[in-house]
Amino acid sequence: MNRFSFPPFRIAIAIAAFVIGFSAFANGNGVGRPSGGGSVYEWQTTITGHERIQLTVVSPDGTVFSREFTPGRNPSFRLSDIEGPVEDGAYSYELRVVPRISADVKRKLEDARAKNDEAAARKLMRQAGLDQPLVQSGAITVLNGSIVAPDAVESSAHDEASATSLSGRSVTTNAPSGLTPEVNDQVIPDDLIVQSSICVGFDCVNNESFGFDTIRMKENNTRVKFEDTSTGTFPTNDWQLTANDSASGGASKFSIEDITGAKVPMTITAGASTNSIFVDSTGRVGFRTSTPVLDLHVATSNTPGIRLEQNNAGGFTAQTWDIAGNEANFFIRDVTSGSRLPFRIRPGAPTSSIDISASGIVGIGTGAPALVNGITRGMQISAEFPAIRLTATGTGGHDYQFQLGSSGQLGISDVTGGTNNNRIFIAGTGNVGIGTTTTTSKLTVAGDVRTIGGSFIDDGTTLNVPDYVFDDQYKLMSVGELASFIRENKHLPNVPSESQVKREGVNISAFQMRLLEKVEELTLYTIDQHDQIGTLQTQNKELMERLAALEQKLAEKQ
Predict the structure, then answer these.
(1) How far, CA to CA in Å, does 107 sit from each of 49, 111, 320?
(2) pTM (whole model) above 0.85
């Protein structure tokens, strides 16, 4: 058995007294009349206008069989439907009719659900006749590996033959000689006080041994009926206590029946475990335990749980959830969607592992989550080294981890495959490192920096880190500045010195780019010097022409 599952319907059987609302009488004709025997059990249906009928059968060991039947097909159950060996005993069954619901009603119900308007939903269900689902339940008895035929009905003991044939029975009659005797009824128009025990039923005998019984009912088909003859505005519902079905192969059970409403709101089947339902003196309810410690206490040896099943008889989409727990985890299971476990808590999880404040802030590891700057929706993680890990499960997926260190540093790391490659690092001082945890300045980048469609900005001005070829605003070093830099540093700008190469090595690609930058810079410098020479030549020509003109005027005056 899967460790995260528990035997279906075992708990449902134990709490059947609370969940059999609106059901038809066992072995009745609410959905269909049972027939068959041997290896097949079938229900002859007469209902129409439905979408389908759902059949659920639970074996004595809790195994569940389910099947759906479309209109025109009688529901049926075969012993071969149960996996494994056939076990003798009572198999509980339920037939549930799924009505045909119009698209308009479904749409209105969906709208009401989306608006969380339960009052409107209940009204729609009542108007559409969906508030009284048609359900029939009962039992199938398997004896010696065969289904007992349900057609035979045990005869009542209240007949003339039984009355006159019981040995030791004294029959008093007032019929004339030669006529059939008739047992006289006794009418006592006064209080009746019996200071010993009473036996009621045709199987009671003279000198009945009562033991500690005060009232005993003894015959087949024992029933206690409460028939209220009130009229007018007084309550008049009739009730009945029923012990066992009367049909062959029926259930051995005890029921409280709503005779007027034709319902069985409570049933306890034979074989139910001790303390299946126990209410202590404080009102606490125990399921399979006589010592409940909380208002509701469920005790079992394997995965106690509760099933929440919304069927589609009311117009809403069917959905089933399980809430359960065992030594492996506490979980919520989405049964309808393939028994997924969307929520799990492992034993030993610390206090406030997940804690939601009244304002909606989610805390992890804190019982008082709070955010600053007026933010009222979000998450706070409290731990010595709080972290968030993002795992991509698809092909080529990566793991990234956000982690806060003890000194206030925040790291974003690629931890794929167990590695720890720092991508972004924020030191406690506020300095940021990209590709490195060594942050000696506000921003330290291990690798190249590139801007696309933009520039580096400092105090609103563009820094002089442009492309050397295409940026016409690039300011060249003067010859004097360049000469001074070379004399002081023994190498060109942006080109590593000999000591740097020996100490740190050299990145050939980066070195080539720096040399290319120098070539570009020198090329621009050459072009600029050529332009300056051309300008000087033009200016010199103009001066020579002006000088010649002045000399000519001076000669003319002489």
Answers:
(1) 20, 6, 21
(2) no
